[in-house]
Amino acid sequence: MNQEIETLIIGGGQAGLSTSYHLKQRGQEHLVLDAAAQPAHVWRDDRWDSFNLLTPNWSFRLPGAEYQGDDPHGFMGRAEIVAAFEQYIQRFQLPVQFGERVLSVEAIRRGQGYLVTTQETTLQARNVVVATGLYQRARKPLLSADLSPHLTQLHASQYRNPGVLPPGAVLVVGSGQSGCQIAEELYLSGRRVYLSTSSAGRAPRRYRGKDIFEWLHLSGFLDRTVDKLPSPKAKFAANPHLSGRDGGRTLNLHQFARDGVILLGRIQDGRDQLIKLAPDLHDNLTKADQFEAELVKLIDDYIAQAGLDASPESLPALRDGFIAEVTTQLDLRPAGVTSIIWAMGFAFDFGLVKLPVFDGDGYPIQQRGVTAYPGLFFVGLPWLYTNKSGLLLGVGEDAEYIASVIASNEQRYPNP
Fold first, then answer.
1. pLDDT tens digits for 341-387?
2. Phi, psi values for residue 8, rounded to 5°
3. pLDDT of residue 416
4. What pLDDT sits at residue 216?
């Protein structure tokens, strides 16, 4: 006979733990299954050694354990983040089983809930909360297999520090948050860096006396609901590049160029030691500049409408990136490139859920995490409900909502 449980939560990251906390507060029987061997897997194993939280410490809001330290405007390091998750589980005695990879979730006929199969066992649950996040598979282009075997190739999640790479120049592919932070660390360590850019935006770390994230929070920008997006695909847009390093830093591609980084367009193809590039470098720089301009205008408008006392500020108008020659190919051998860091983000995969609850992009069809299959929920995804749904600042709010729906017990279960 299968083990029966009221609610199963798949994933023990910030979303799964937040949901567990709220269910426990309501006295709801549940179990969290996590494929990793220990807490905070993503922060512990998929971030480089010098990684810092990108949002200020005050935004660390796991429910019941909101940040109470003496540096609210600082940025926690990786070890401190990992410790916070470990302490959270211990403090609230959350029922998490590690090393339990879920293989499938299927509806049971006659309205009996769901059958959840792991590598070790099969369980039956009236409710299933999928809290696996949106970043399951590291993205590397197919062309990576056609490049020289003498090159060291790592995804950004595998990079740890400059010392793990062989001597020589480094090609970083992708100018989102991870790509820019890694590129900066590499060139500050003395490496020659080539950076293949994308259309990711740029945000100043601080503006008019506050951290940019605080302005976005105060202005309601992070509370925008998903229906305000211009298109469904907009929820997958790259986050603007910035850094929590050294107390918080602005990352600017023009500054990178001034410091000696060789900026390139997008990679289109590659074979052996030759990389072919799109001639879109200037377009990418323009988009980053435009994103920043629109963002600070939004903040200026908010300050004016709210009548706040915040001194005007003009951000540096750098143009160094436009001086760089636009090239359509890079021969890695004469450039001295011995390593490539693929900082192209992740793809999501909800294939373990064997039910028709996904749209054409593979994203769950739901209303604030509630699907058309009663008892099946999602939590912790970017734009699940608001802009901050996937962030430490906002995940607890969606988790509380899901827990309240489960606790209400006013549900009918599927009868496929």
1. 999 988 889 999 999 999 999 999 999 999 999 999 999 999 999 99
2. -110, 130
3. 35
4. 97
CA distance 242 to 252: 8
**CA distances to 14, 143, 243, 331, 396 from 377, in Å:** 16, 37, 33, 49, 15
Q: What number of CA atoms fall less than 13 Å from residue 13's CA on the CB side?
A: 23
- 43/77 Cα distance (integer angstroms): 10
Chain-centroid distance, C-alpha 227: 21
**Distance in angstroms (rounded) separating the CA atoms of residues 30 and 282:** 52
297 phi/psi in degrees, rounded to 5: -65, -40
Per the CB < 8 A criterion, the answer to whether 32 and 9 are in contact is yes
Residues 6+ apart with CB under 8 A from 125: 4, 5, 6, 7, 8, 113, 114, 116, 375
Q: What is the mean pLDDT of the chain?
A: 95
Domains and CATH numbers, the chain: 3-136+348-408 (3.50.50.60), 138-345 (3.50.50.60)
Sign of CA dihedral 44, 46, 49, 51: negative
- Which single residue is written with the structure tokens 């995969």? 349
Q: Distance between terminal CA atoms of the chain?
A: 22
pLDDT single digits (tens) 254-282: 999 999 999 999 999 999 999 999 999 99
Annotate 226-256 with b (16+ C-beta within 10 A) or e (fewer). Answer: beeeeeeeebebbebbbbbbeebbbbbbbbb
Q: Are 194 and 337 in contact (CB under 8 A)?
A: yes
Please report the pLDDT score of residue 3 as a whole number: 87
pLDDT for 324: 83
- Please compute Rg for the chain using Cα positions: 23
Residue 392, pLDDT above cutoff 90: yes
- CA-wise closest residue to 385 among 354, 364, 360: 364
Contact 153, 221 (CB under 8 A): no
- Average pLDDT in the 137-161 region? 96
Phi, psi of 178, deg, nearest 5: -70, -45
Alpha-carbon gap, residue 119 to 317, rounded angstroms: 55
Helix (H) or strand (E) holding 403: helix 395-408
pTM above 0.85, yes or no: yes
* CB contact at 8 A, 107 and 373: yes
- H or E element that contains 331: strand 329-331
